[in-house]
């Protein structure tokens, strides 16, 4: 049996590639007719979430007080040809990127799109296709137009359904003939703990009220389902998935109290948003979840038409990010807590941690793949995974990032194991395939890429691109379809 596992092949057509987000690498935040987005108003630095959670936070940009690294990113807007050529050199079969909503509708509520923005993504898509790289597009990745927050109050306003539907119709109609794979909202479930990026909700506009977060989710579910309907009307083989932040969740021990707490955490964080988008209906535990926060499902603005749209338009696959697992313990308050990708938990004594305290657990990825595939019986796509680390380039800007290679190797082996378990895995796109601004900390120093970008946290540097050791390693992995892992 062990031999069979070791010989397990990745399927033909497996989508090897990498992933980025518009707001973290494009820069050019006021060029080409682009409007301001949520990301443009988020200060840089590890305290960014504490800043936006202050009751007087008003989304104004104060460059005398804060830095805004997203404004510059790594200037992909002007370097996309160079960067995509490097992705082609690695051998990417696909490239997951996002469209900046405010490049297409600068304020979010216009009736006509910005043609300059559409033409930019025309060029990016065509550049990918020139190298036979399949575009995988996230329609909204943490960059809601800022006007939709300041004027309409963010995702809790049902008007957002129509604004997103109009935006999705425009980009799907424009690009569907060239782009087969899409996702609706990035890490939609992250709003359980941090609603600012996905929903535009902070303390000052009701973000601390859980009913607002669930209302925003409902609006996103309906908007996403409408996008699925549009995509399927445009192209019969077009695939639109949801995208979840997935942190495999364990009970710390066999205490039934902790086991029940882990089940509840799984429902709230890992399963709820997926259940609605994949199954097309709210799960049985919905009322229990909402009651826990002091409100009822009937308190939400939900119409019969909404429920019919959800039922008729489930997503085609489950895209998800996986960086770490989490452990739940409610019986011992003395245990140390762990950091994580917007979620934490207690420290798991069986795991090591990254430079930022994220617990490294490749076996958790195999578990996640099995959980998702067997829960939904649909294809799954690992669209984010990677190691954020402090890279130390030598005098020639070369980074010997064996730590990243080891991390990725172990997670790819976990995917191989899940495929042996019978899971239909569509592909693997490691996060931040080129260094970019971190979403969680607003830093350049938290690097993920195969390609080093000479830029620091203060925005100083040449912006030149350099291949890391992981560049050639991943090239061998893709070229051998996962056979050459050393």
UniProtKB/TrEMBL annotation:
This is 6-phospho-beta-glucosidase. GO terms for molecular function: beta-glucosidase activity. GO terms for cellular component: cytosol. Belongs to the glycosyl hydrolase 1 family. PANTHER family: 6-PHOSPHO-BETA-GLUCOSIDASE ASCB-RELATED, GLYCOSYL HYDROLASE. It comes from Lacticaseibacillus pantheris DSM 15945 = JCM 12539 = NBRC 106106. InterPro entries: GH, GH_1_N_CS, Glyco_hydro_1, Glyco_hydro_1_AS. NCBIfam families: PRK09593.1 (NF007158).
